[in-house]
Write a structure and sequence with these properties.
Length: 287
C-alpha cells in the first residue's frame, strides 16, 4: 500500500508522460468538478455539447454501449487504464462496484480526488496502480472497460489474454480506441515523414501525444480479439470525421460545433468509410 492505494510490484513506470498530463493539465481541468458539475456533465452526451475535460476523454458519445447491452447498474466492473475522467464516477453513481487500475500512480491519486469532489462514497471503489499486461485478480467482472489504453501498449494480445479470465460468463469487454488511419491522427503518428514531421514534433513536445504512440489498426485488433478467445457482438464506428479534429478547439455547444456535428451525423457518417473513422467502439464477450 502507498498513500492508501494498492501498488502492484510489477506496475510499469508510465509516469513521465502521464504524470505530467495528470498533474499539469488534468488537475486544472477538474478544478471546479463538484457534485453539480459532475451531474450536469453527464447530461452532455454529444461531442459538440461537451466541455474541455469531457472532450479530452476521447469518447465522442457518452454511454455508447447502451444500445447494445443496456444501462450498466449494480454490477462489478474492472476499469483498465482508468486515467481521470467522468467514467469511474459514473460507474459509482449507477451503483456499480469498481476496481480501477492504472499504471500511473499520479492518475490514481487524482482520480481519487475527483471521486471525492463528485460527492461519491469511496466504499464501492478500489484503486490500484497495476499493469494491464500482468494484472491478475481473484475476482471476475460483469464488465471490463478499457478506453484509449491499448494504443499506448504495444502488445494488445497480451492485454486481451490477461483480461479474459477476469470476465465472467456472459460479461462484456468494452473497448474504445482511436483509429491509426484517421487522417489527422495518421499525420501526427506516422513515421513516414521523420525527421521532418513538424506537426508530430509539436504534439510530442507539448505532451499532446506520447512519443511513439500509434492509434489502433482495427483489422488487427479484431483478429487479436478472435485469437484470444473473444467474440465481437458490436463494433460501431465513431462518425465525428470532421468534428473530432475541429470541435476540440471550439467553445462548448457553439453554433459552429453543432453545425459540424450535424454534418457528421447526417452526411459524413454515412458516406465516409470506416477505415478512416476517428474511433471505433467494440463490445466483445467470451467465446
Ligand atoms: C490516454 S489515457 C486514457 C485514460 C482513460 N481510460 C480515458 O479514456 O480517458 C491512457 C491511460 O492508460 C494508462 N496506461 C498506459 N499503459 C498502461 C498499462 N500497461 N497498464 C495500465 N494502464 C496503462 C495510462 O497511465 C493512462 O492513464
Amino acid at each position: 500500500m502507498e498513500d492508501g492505494i494498492i501498488v502492484f510490484d510489477d506496475a510499469v513506470d508510465k509516469e513521465n508522460f502521464f504524470e505530467k498530463q495528470a498533474i499539469a493539465r488534468l488537475s486544472e481541468k477538474y478544478r471546479g468538478f463538484d457534485r453539480d458539475a459532475f451531474l450536469e456533465s453527464l447530461k452532455k452526451t454529444e461531442l459538440s455539447e461537451m466541455d474541455e475535460a469531457n472532450k479530452a476523454v476521447g469518447i465522442t458519445k457518452k454511454f455508447w454501449w447502451e444500445p447494445y447491452i443496456g444501462k450498466i447498474e449494480n454490477k462489478p466492473i474492472l476499469e483498465v487504464g482508468c486515467g481521470i475522467n467522468y467514467i469511474v464516477p459514473y460507474w459509482l453513481e449507477c451503483g456499480n462496484d469498481v476496481i480501477a487500475i492504472d499504471a500511473c500512480k499520479e492518475s490514481i491519486l487524482l482520480l481519487r480526488r475527483v471521486i471525492e469532489q463528485a460527492g461519491l462514497g469511496r466504499e464501492r471503489i478500489r484503486l490500484a496502480v497495476a499493469d494491464a499486461r500482468t494484472i491478475k485478480l481473484a475476482e471476475t467482472f460483469d464488465v471490463v472497460n478499457i478506453n484509449n489504453v491499448l494504443h499506448h501498449i504495444g502488445d494488445s494480445r497480451q492485454v486481451l489474454s490477461r483480461l479474459r479470465p477476469h470476465l465472467c460468463d456472459g460479461g462484456s469487454l468494452l473497448i474504445v480506441e482511436p483509429n491509426y488511419y484517421y487522417p489527422p491522427r495518421w499525420i501526427i503518428e506516422t513515421d513516414v515523414f521523420n525527421p521532418f514531421n513538424f506537426i508530430k514534433d509539436y504534439f510530442v513536445r507539448n505532451d499532446l501525444i506520447e512519443k511513439g504512440e500509434k492509434g489502433v489498426v482495427f483489422s488487427d485488433l479484431r483478429c487479436a480479439l478472435l485469437d484470444t478467445g473473444y467474440e465481437i457482438i458490436a463494433n460501431p464506428k465513431d462518425v465525428n470525421y470532421l468534428g473530432y479534429f475541429s470541435i476540440y478547439w471550439m467553445r462548448q455547444n457553439s453554433p459552429l460545433a453543432r453545425m459540424i456535428s450535424n454534418l457528421d451525423n447526417l452526411l459524413f457518417g454515412w458516406i465516409l468509410p470506416r477505415i478512416i473513422a476517428p474511433f471505433e467502439y467494440i463490445v466483445a464477450v467470451k467465446k
